[in-house]
Design goal:
This protein is α/β, with parallel strands linked by helices. The protein is 49% helix and 7% strand. The strands form three sheets. It has a four-stranded parallel β-sheet, sandwiched between helices. A two-stranded antiparallel ribbon has the order 1-4. A two-stranded antiparallel sheet has the order 2-3. Bound molecules: protoporphyrin IX containing FE (HEM) and iron/sulfur cluster (2 copies). One iron/sulfur cluster binds next to helix 13.
C-alpha cells in the first residue's frame, strides 16, 4: 500500500504546511478532523431538533411545512434548515479527509485496526442519515431519491412486495411508509453516535471538541453560508410525473447517477467490494509491528504515570505479583500497544545517570531501549564539533533538519514523548552538547497523539517527570512542526546555535555517575 500512501501523505504534508501558516498550528483544521466531525454532528442534531418542531410528518403537509420554514420563518427555521444541510455536508467532508489522513499517515494498521474498521459502519450510517433526510422534504429531489433508492433496495430479496411500488401513483404512497422514513432518519443518527463511541474505545482521552476559536470560526462560516445561500427545495413531488432534472447534493447523493449506467446488482456489488476493502485494509498487508513495551518489576514502584501518559490505554495497574511493598504494578496489553515509548519517558526510573550496565527502567521498549537511547545520545554527542553544539532529540515522524554534522547531531526516537527529561539534564550537565533541541510533530498533530504535549508539560514542570530546575532553560529549545518543515527546523537550529555561542560552552558536571547521583536526580527535584 505504500505506493498509494506516499502521495496521500505528501499531499497532507504540503496542505498542513500551508494551513499551519493560515490558521496557526493550534487551529489547523487538519489537526482536528475527528473533532470537527463531532462538532458538525452536534450542529446537525441541534438544528434537527428545532426543525422537527415545525415539520409536519404527513406526506401532503411535509413539503408545505418545509416551505413555511424556508420562506416565512427564514430568519430562524430557515437558517436552521440551512445549518442542518451544510453541517451534514461538512461532516461527510471532514470524515473523508480524516480517513485519508489516517491512511496516509499509516495510522490504520496494527493495533489501530479496531478504530479504523469501526469507521466503516460510520460511513454507512452517515449516508443513511443523509439520504433519508433528503427524502423527508418530499420535493422532486426527494421523489428522485425515493424512486432510485427503493428500486435499488428491491434488488435485495428482503421485501415481500417491491417497495418501489409505493411510488407508482400518487395514491400508492401512504403516511405509514413516510413515517418509517422519519423513524429511520431519527434512529440512524442515534446509532451513529453509539458507533462513534465504540470507534473511540481504544483511543485514550479522544479529542472530540475542536479548539474554541476553530469551532467559533467554523460555525460563523456555516451561518454566513446559510444566510447568503439558504437551502431551498425543488418543486413539490408529483408521482404522476417522472423527475428528469435535479440539483444533486454530491456529498450524499454522488453515487445516484451511477444507477443510470449500472444495474442495481452491479451497484450493490461495487459498494460491497469497496466497503469490505476499506474494512480489511489494515490487513493489506498487515503491519510489521515493533516489540511492545515491557514492564520490569524490579524498577516499577506502581506510580501510575505510565497509565496516565499512554495515549492508547495500553497500560493498566494490577495487584502486585512479586511480593514487593507496593500495592500495584504496571501491566501492558500487547494488543493495544503501538510501541511509541511515551511510557518510558513517563517512568521515574528512566534515567541515564547510571553506569552503562545498569540502565534498566520500570517500563521499556525491547527494540529501542533506554540503554540504546543513552548509547545513541553519547554517540551523537561524540560526533559534535565546534562552538554552539546542538544535540537534537527528534521524533521519527516529525521534520528532519536539511543539514547535519559539525555543530548539529540528531538522535531519533519513535516519539519525542519517549525522552525522559533527565536526558536533557544528562546531556547538558555532562557537557555532551551546549544546547538541547527537542523536535517533533506540529502542535495538536502528534503522530502518537500526546508526545509533544506531554514533553512540553514535563519541561515546563507541569507534569511528572519534570525537568530539573537546575537545567539552564536558555540551553533548551523546543520546535514542533510538520514533516515538510525540515528547512525551518534547520534555520531554528542555526539561530539556537548562534545564541549558544554567545552563552559559551555548557558547564560540565564534575561529579562522576554513581547510584547516589541517581537518587539525587530522580528524587530531590522531581
Ligand atoms: C464523522 C465520522 C467520524 C468521526 C466524528 C471520527 C472521530 C474521530 C476522533 C474524535 C478520533 C480521535 C482523534 C484523537 O483524539 O486523536 C478518531 C480517530 C480515528 N479515526 Fe475517526 N471519526 C470518524 C470516521 C472515521 C472513519 C470513517 C474512519 C476510517 C474508516 C476513521 C478512522 C480513524 C482512525 C484510524 C483513528 C485513530 C487514529 C489514532 O489511532 O491515532 N474515522 N476519529
Ligand atoms: S509504548 Fe506507547 S502505546 Fe505502548 S504502553 Fe507505552 S505509551 Fe502505551
Ligand atoms: S511509570 Fe514506571 S514505575 Fe510508574 S507504574 Fe509505570 S512502570 Fe511502574
Amino acid at each position: 500500500m505504500t505506493w498509494l500512501q506516499r502521495p496521500v501523505r505528501a499531499a497532507f504534508d504540503i496542505a498542513e504546511l500551508g494551513l499551519d501558516r493560515v490558521f496557526s498550528q493550534h487551529w489547523n483544521p487538519l489537526h482536528h478532523l475527528g473533532a470537527l466531525g463531532f462538532f458538525m454532528y452536534w450542529i446537525v442534531a441541534a438544528s434537527g431538533i428545532y426543525l422537527y418542531i415545525f415539520f409536519d410528518t404527513g406526506i401532503t403537509a411535509a413539503y408545505s411545512s418545509v416551505e413555511y420554514m424556508t420562506n416565512d420563518q427564514w430568519y430562524l427555521a430557515g437558517v436552521m434548515r440551512s445549518l442542518h444541510r451544510y453541517a451534514s455536508d461538512a461532516m461527510v467532508l471532514f470524515m473523508v479527509i480524516h480517513m485519508a489522513r489516517e491512511f496516509g499517515l499509516d495510522r490504520y494498521r496494527g493495533v489501530r485496526w479496531f478504530t479504523w474498521s469501526t469507521g466503516v459502519p460510520i460511513i454507512v450510517l452517515l449516508f443513511v442519515c443523509g439520504i433519508t433526510g433528503y427524502w423527508l422534504v418530499w420535493d422532486q429531489l426527494a421523489q428522485f431519491v425515493a424512486v432510485r433508492s427503493t428500486e435499488w433496495l428491491d434488488w435485495l430479496p428482503i421485501f415481500g412486495t417491491p417497495t418501489a411500488a409505493n411510488f407508482l401513483t400518487p395514491e400508492s404512497l401512504d403516511d405509514r411508509f413516510f413515517s418509517l422514513m422519519i423513524f429511520i432518519h431519527i434512529a440512524a443518527p442515534l446509532i451513529l453516535l453509539l458507533i462513534l463511541w465504540i470507534h473511540l474505545q481504544r483511543v485514550s482521552r479522544p479529542q472530540i471538541n475542536p479548539p474554541r476559536g476553530l469551532a467559533v470560526g467554523m460555525f460563523a462560516m456555516m451561518l454566513a453560508l446559510s444566510l447568503v445561500m439558504p437551502a431551498t427545495s425543488h418543486a413539490p413531488a408529483d408521482l404522476s410525473t417522472v423527475v428528469s432534472v435535479v440539483r444533486l447534493d454530491w456529498y450524499y447523493l454522488g453515487l445516484y447517477p451511477l444507477m443510470d449506467y449500472w444495474s442495481a446488482g452491479t451497484v450493490w456489488a461495487a459498494l460491497t467490494v469497496v466497503l469490505l476493502t476499506v474494512m480489511f485494509l489494515p490487513w493489506m498487508p498487515p503491519m510489521r509491528r515493533a516489540a511492545t513495551a515491557r514492564v520490569y518489576l524490579d524498577h516499577c514502584n506502581g506510580c501510575v504515570r505510565c497509565v496516565d501518559d499512554c495515549p492508547f490505554g495500553a497500560v493498566s495497574m494490577v495487584p502486585r505479583t512479586d511480593g514487593a511493598k507496593f500495592a500495584e504494578e504496571a501491566l501492558v496489553d500487547p494488543d493495544l500497544c503501538v510501541s511509541c515509548g511515551i511510557c518510558v519517558g513517563a517512568c521515574p526510573s528512566s534515567t541515564p545517570f547510571r553506569r552503562r550496565g545498569e540502565i534498566v527502567t520500570g517500563i521499556d521498549l525491547p527494540d529501542f531501549s533506554l540503554a540504546d537511547l543513552r548509547a545513541a545520545t553519547e554517540a551523537a554527542a561524540e560526533a559534535l564539533d565546534g562552538e554552539g553544539r546542538v544535540l537534537v532529540f527528534g521524533c521519527a515522524h516529525g521534520p528532519r533538519p536539511s543539514k547535519k554534522g559539525g555543530t548539529t547531531a540528531f538522535v531519533t526516537l519513535p516519539c519525542i514523548g519517549m525522552l525522559p527529561p533527565s536526558f536533557i539534564d544528562y546531556t547538558l550537565s555532562r557537557g555532551l552538547a551546549d544546547g538541547v533541541m527537542l523536535s517533533g510533530c506540529a502542535e495538536d498533530a502528534c503522530y502518537h497523539r500526546f508526545g509533544a504535549e506531554w514533553t512540553d508539560a514535563r519541561v515546563d514542570r507541569q507534569r511528572d517527570p519534570q525537568l530539573r530546575r537546575r537545567v539552564p532553560r536558555e540551553r533548551v529549545r523546543r520546535h514542533w512542526a510538520g514533516r515538510a518543515e525540515g528547512k525551518a527546523l534547520s534555520a531554528e537550529i542555526e539561530r539556537f546555535a548562534d545564541g549558544l555561542r554567545q552563552l559559551g560552552p555548557a558547564a560540565s558536571d564534575p561529579l562522576p555517575p554513581s547510584s547516589e547521583r541517581i537518587l539525587e536526580t530522580v528524587e530531590s527535584d522531581g
